[in-house]
Amino acid sequence: MINVASIPSAHVYVRHLAHPSAGAGSVVRLADPPSGESADSPWWPPRMLSRTWICEHAAEFDVMHIHFGFDALSPEDLEDVAAALREHDKPLVVTVHDLRNPHHDAALLHDAQLGVLVDAADALITLTPGAAAEIRHRWGREATVLPHPQVVPDEWLVRDRPERGEFVVGIHAKSLRANMDPSPLIDALVTALPGMPGARLRVDAHTDVMTAGFVRHDAGFSERVTSLAQQGLLELQVHDYFSDDELWAYLLGLDVSVLPYQFGTHSGWLEACHDLGTWVVAPDCGFYAEQRPTLSYSATGPTRLTSLVDAVRSAHDRWLSGESASRATATERHAERVSLARAHEAIYSAVRTLAA
User: Fold this and answer.
1) Entry pTM
2) 43 within a domain of the structure (yes/no)
3) 87 contact partners, CB below 8 Å, separation of at least 6
4) What is each CA distance from 189 to 119, 182, 224, 232, in whole angstroms?
5) Residues 27-33: contacts with CB under 8 Å, at least 24 apart
6) Tally of CB atoms within 10 A around 302
7) Is residue 262 assigned to a domain?
8) Which of 8, 89, 221, 309 has the smallest C-beta neighbourhood within 10 Å, fewest atoms?
């Protein structure tokens, strides 16, 4: 068996790296030590990312694999983690999900954090050829390209899409994280959708954005979308974070999900849409279009809004013609998971052998 200190372990991406048949394969991922600090992400900040934890638990794992959560540590702290792993002859595998942190206004800190991990890693993984090329360019390291696994559970993978006579376009502002700029996109679609028969715009936002007194409150955004909703120009839904089932039902109820990002790299949201057969209109930054089929628009610049409308109109034209969005099947996703499980097992075996 290969025991992996996976950071995290409970995240859906990591869970679906396992073989779909329970107990198959030789990889065991340690459970996340509870942080006690975040109810929304009980593994964050990750307790495994410390010299103390590594020294106390070195006998329990063969390989450490970092996915998410290292943004909780400074570059100096990460260097200490890497040194502790070397002292205990524990290899490090890093999956580079984000080349730019979507929660940071500036790239400097994430670049420094990621630089420490890329330099220290015994093996690198990423999700797309474009990301691998950027890693090669920035750090001179080769990364194995492995696709993002399914996001939604099997019972949702096989669920029929609802039949309806309208074309629903969704923009979810979430909590307006740093890479989001939805307001101009919403205004552009409010103007354009009346020219698309049967089209309707749904805008979602979390309570913390829409409610005065919350740290994330944005008065300008709140007032604008509330006004548009009162005029009947869009449907506004304000709520806390969706549960998983609420999120899958929401995405299944859309024909198009617009990702209102100005920078980013990869997207689990995009993968969920692919699982459920919902068109994705994604910005041309990062490597979204390499992940799964998307309709692209300009992330920034003078054509941002016109290219957005063109992308949504393209989806609408396909909808009118009876064409469905690309959708993963359970058979495809399970075969992909088998391949991913074997690929990760091979990487863990290789780095463990080199460290021996």
Assistant:
1) 0.95
2) yes
3) none
4) 44, 11, 14, 13
5) 27/1, 27/2, 27/341, 27/344, 27/345, 27/348, 28/1, 28/2, 28/3, 28/4, 29/4, 29/5, 30/3, 30/4, 30/5, 30/6, 30/60, 30/61, 32/7, 32/8
6) 8
7) yes
8) 89
Helix orientation angle between 183-192 and 219-230, rounded to the nearest 10 degrees:
20
Tell me the pLDDT tens digit for each residue of 46-59: 999 999 999 999 99
Mean pLDDT of the chain: 96
| CB proximity list for 3: less than 8 A, separation 6 or greater | 28, 30, 60, 61, 62, 63
How confident is the model over 285-291, as a mean pLDDT?
97
Question: Which residue's entry shows tokens 């974070």?
Answer: 241
Query: Which residue type is seen at 7?
Result: I
Asked if residue 167 and residue 143 are part of one domain, the reply reads no
Q: Residue 266 belongs to what domain range?
A: 154-320
Query: Domain holding 245: CATH number?
Result: 3.40.50.2000
